[in-house]
Amino acid sequence: MSSDNQWSADEDEGQLSRLIRKSRDSPFVPVGIAGFMAVVSYGLYKLKYRRNQKISIHLIHMRVAAQGFVVGAVTLGVLYSMYKDYIRPRFFNVSKK
């Protein structure tokens, strides 16, 4: 593979350093991951106290809540990226000469 290929994996880069690099590029990715883990953890904790609710219904509600959090984080990330790339340069960098 050529060295300028951005899709080739770095042999020296570990999982943690890759996650840190990606979180600098897209700051809402770790927020989405953390929210997903929090919703799933809370749902599994509440699994004991579901009363007379079926387990399948409880798991469906937990999945929908986790996916909703991730979709919300992705949406906020896209909006932030659009603001950073298009709106902020247009209105706040007036003297570009």
Overall description:
The protein is mainly α. The protein folds into two domains: 1-52, no CATH class; 53-96. The protein has three helices and no strands. Helix 2 runs antiparallel to helix 3 (55-92). The termini are far apart. The model has no long low-confidence stretch (mean pLDDT 81). This is HIG1 hypoxia inducible domain family member 1C. It is found in: Mitochondrion membrane. The chain crosses the membrane at residues 27-45, 65-83.
State the main characteristics.
97 residues, 2 domains, 3 helices, 0% strand, RCF1, transmembrane
Uncertain stretches of 5 or more adjacent residues:
none
Proportion of residues in β-strands: under 5%
Helix and strand content put the structural class at: mainly alpha
Largest sheet: none
